[in-house]
Structure formats: structure tokens, C-alpha cells
Amino acid sequence: MNKITYWLHIRCLAGSAALLAFLALAAPAQAQEITWAPYAYELRSGESVAAEMGVLAVPAHRDRAGASINLHFVRIPAARANSGAPIIYLAGGPGSSGIDAGRGDRWALFDALRQEGDVILLDQRGVGLSDASPDCSTPWSFPSDQASTETSFNASLEAAAVLCASEWRAAGIDLSVYNTAENAADVADLARALGGRARLVGISYGTFLAFAVLRDHGDLIERVVLAGTEGPDHTLKLPTQADDVLRRFSERIGHDPVASGLTPNLRRSVETTIARLDRAPMMVEIPGEGGATSTFVISKYDVQIVTAFLLASSNNSVRLPALYAAMEQGDYSGMARSVMFLRRFLASLPAMPLATDAASPVSAARQRQAGRLARRSIFENAVNAPSADFADALGVPELSARWHERLRTSVPAYFISGDLDSRTPPGNAEEVRRGFRSSAHLLLSGAGHDNDLFLSSPLIVERIGAFLRGEEMQDERIGVDVLDFD
Fold it and tell me: Helix, strand or coil for residue 350?
């Protein structure tokens, strides 16, 4: 619709009520009022921190009037007066709770950030306290006596998602409200309600969300910390990135007396095991209640998924040498337990993560690249599991192509990457930062995904604080020692 047609359309709207409603949607965003209440933020250590619970009503859809969603967030007050703009933490996933993120080890990060300003721990729409949709009443499961392949695994998940979507629609749940564009507008509304300016700290999907905020609402953001970069066109993982991490991880194992005693060459063990299972899946007898046993079939695809998952973060990757040493001796029980754990993790089919990822567009070039690299990778396409077509299964529309296009911004950014992170490797940050006028990159040698990116060295929190205070940062590489195979 061109501008002339657009304004003719407005003039032809029937009735003043309809016109006022339309203009209200088109008007510039106004800061909404936050409802605050005292809140005792309980840590898993038993400590209680005096904080506030905030609630902000935001539109479920920005393009039409109707329902609203209540965003919940915790404000950890700044430790000193005259600090800077509030720091909004964007959790990963999608689907992780920002409010819960600080209750464990990551409290050390948020406690340090209090020196720089109020810390806002946000539960994104559809997560935690922010109007989360109920789990599907019929959990997904894959037949334990069948060997899974990417095709059969995805077909099973898609069928389950269709049933869940029908159930959610019957309950009045609109899955189309869950996407990164709406999520970004939520963050912008929150920034306005907090005073008009904010700083962002995001990890993994939280960085993907931060890019979306910068794309449409960059005027509200002073600075952004991006740990484990998932760029606008990085929703689809490149399989050989996991191969690269496996090679580096194997080299580190070779210098560790405990791990090398189990698997002197993990990369070769992975290749050998996958080739063996490609020829014939392995049947494992799993003990049950009352002395009964059941047969569990381990396929090549199962091992590819589990290995790629465990490889991403140091607290999980250290399990791989013992796991592969057992399989080389014919004991697949540990792998069977890992496969069962991952399937249980997927079983609830949570609405927000599935819909949000399904709505994220991927460029044709990225799809071709991932497909080409899958043919060269030990993992094939298992790094993208589950790779089911949830957009069709859930009936969720995909966002427009502009959301995967390269971002260009003048907002200063501080990138943090681990060279053992197979999910969001350093190359992601280097690719994306070309669109930033001002940036620096902290590379952690020996760090994986998740907590490693914030907590594997005290220098990380120091650097983040300095950046948020406005100091000029430089590219830097530091070594960390977090791999414990004992």
C-alpha cells in the first residue's frame, strides 16, 4: 500500500470509534506505568535479597488492538547512588527465565552488575511469571524400541506439535504472539517505562533478541553486552562448527592425564562409534520396576544429538570421555540414559520456545550453507535437532526477511565468546560485529557455552563492568581453566 492509498484508507474508515482505534495503534509508543511491589529474591544458597517485582502490561500484538500480556521482572537495586541507566538481562533459550537465572551461580554476575545500575531480570513473554502457556497435556515420546533417524524423529515431533497446537487454540492461546519482533517491542516498552534509556546484557538467544531490539529501538539502548552471539541469521547452526570444537576439545583431552586415559583421541572415538551405529543400531536392556527390563534402541542419530548437546558447555563436555570409553567397551547404558534425558527435556513441547524459534526467518543462503556443511560433518544435521517444521505444525507465521538481515548500528557492543562453544562460536561474533560502529571482542580460550561465558574467570565480570561504565575496550583473549575430568 503506497502513502496515498494508506491515507485514503484511513479516511474511509467507518465511524469515529474505528478511526480513533486505528490512530491509537499508529501513534508513537508511550511509556506505560509499571506496578511495583516489594519482593524477597530468594537464592538457592538460602540468601534473600531485597528487591522489587515489577509488572508491565504490553500488547499481545502490536499490529492490532486486543489482548495484553503482563511482563514480570525483578529489579535488583543498584548498590550505589547516581549509577547509570538500568541494565536489562535478556535470558537465552528461547524460553529461559530471567528471574530464575540469578538464583544460582549467575548471581555473582548480577551482584557485580549492581555496581553499575539497577539490574532488571526479565521473564520474557510466555516464560515463567509472564503469562506462560501451560504445557501440552499429552507429552511427546519416541518409541524406545525403534531406531530414530532425523526424518522419523521430526515426523514424530511434528505430529505431537499439531495435537498440542490444537489443544492450545481450544484453550484460547494465540501462539502467534510468540516471536522475537514482539519480544523486542516488549523490551523497548520496558526501557521506556523504566525511564527511557537502558543497557542490555544478553546471552545466546538473548543476544538474538538484543539484535532485534537494536534494529527497531536502538535509540533507547546505550550499550549492549553480547555473550555467546546468535546473530540475526544464526538460528540455523552450521554443523561443522561442532566438528571444530570437537577437534579442539580432543586436543585438550590429550593433555589431561585423567581424560586421555579414558579416550586418548575423542574425535576418533566419536567417528568410530557413529560409523558402527550407522551399520547397525545398538539394543540396550534398561532395568525397570519389579525386575522387568525394556529394550532401548540407540541409533547413530541419537549419539549425534547427545554428543553435540554435551559438547557445547564445559560442565557437560567433561562427561564425554567416560561415555565414549564405556561404549568402546560395549556398554551403551550411559548413552541410553543421556538419550532418555534429552527426550524427556523435549517431551513437554513448551509453547513459547517452539513458536519463537519457528517464527524466526532463515535466509536461503544460510540454509544452503548448512545443508552443504552437514554432508561434511560428523554430526550431519544433528546440531539443529529438533529440526522439525514447527511453523507448519503450530500454524505460526514466519517473520519477514528483514529480521535476518545484517544489522548496522552505532550502539557500542562488547562481545564475549568461548572457543569451545559449539552453539554460538566466536565466528558468529566476528561476522556480526562488522555492522557495529564500535565494538570489542573478549575471546575465552577453554570456555564453552552458558555459565562459562560469564563466570569462567573473574576478569569477565570486571571487563563487563568497565564496558558498561563507558570505558574504551580492546579485543582480548584470555585463557580459562574450567574443564574438570575428575
Answer: coil
Please state, in angstroms and rounded to a whole number, the distance separating the CA atoms of residues 143 and 146. 6
Question: 283: number of CA atoms within 13 Å, CB side?
Answer: 5
The span from the CA of 301 to the CA of 382, in Å, is 7
Whether 417 and 225 have beta carbons less than 8 Å apart is answered as: no
Looking at residue 357, its pLDDT comes to 96
Report yes or no: 88 and 34 within 8 Å, Cβ to Cβ.
no
Q: pLDDT (tens digit, 9 = 90+) per residue, 86-130?
A: 999 999 999 999 999 999 999 999 999 999 999 999 999 999 999
Smallest CA-to-CA distance from 419 within 267, 246, 201, 234 is with 246
Residue 368's pLDDT band, with cuts at 50, 70 and 90, is very high
Q: Which residues contact 196 (CB under 8 A, 6 or more apart)?
A: 31, 220
DSSP state letters, 127-177: STTTTPPPPPSS-----TTS---HHHHHHHHHHHHHHHHHHHHHTT--GGG
Q: How far apart are CA 486 and CA 248, in angstroms?
A: 20
Among the listed residues 212, 305, 311, the one whose alpha carbon sits nearest the alpha carbon of residue 267: 311
- Check whether 29 has a pLDDT greater than 60: no
Q: Which amino acid is at 393?
A: A
Cis bond before residue 386 (omega within 30° of 0): yes
> pLDDT value at position 5?
31
Supply angle C-alpha 242, 203, 182, rounded to 5: 110
pLDDT band at 15 (very low <50, low <70, confident <90, very high): very low
Q: What is the largest CA-CA distance in the chain?
A: 79
**Residues 59 and 131 sit within 8 Å (Cβ to Cβ):** no
CB-based contacts of 402, cutoff 8 Å, min separation 6: 215
Please give the model's pTM, rounded to 2 decimal places. Answer: 0.92
**Contact predicate 203/210, CB 8 Å:** no
Cα→Cα distances 331→196, 258, 264, 270, 476, Å: 58, 20, 18, 15, 43
Read off the pLDDT band of 16 (50, 70, 90): very low
Q: Are strands 198-204 and 413-418 parallel, antiparallel or unpaired?
A: unpaired
DSSP string, 56-110: EEEES-TTS---EEEEEEEEE--SSTT--S-EEEE-STTT--HHHHTTSTTHHHH
- Strands of 350-473 (E only): list them: 413-418, 439-445
What is the sign of the dihedral through the CA atoms of 186, 189, 195 and 200? Answer: positive
Contacts of 39 (CB under 8 A, 6+ apart): 51, 52, 53, 74
Across-strand partners of 418?
A: 444
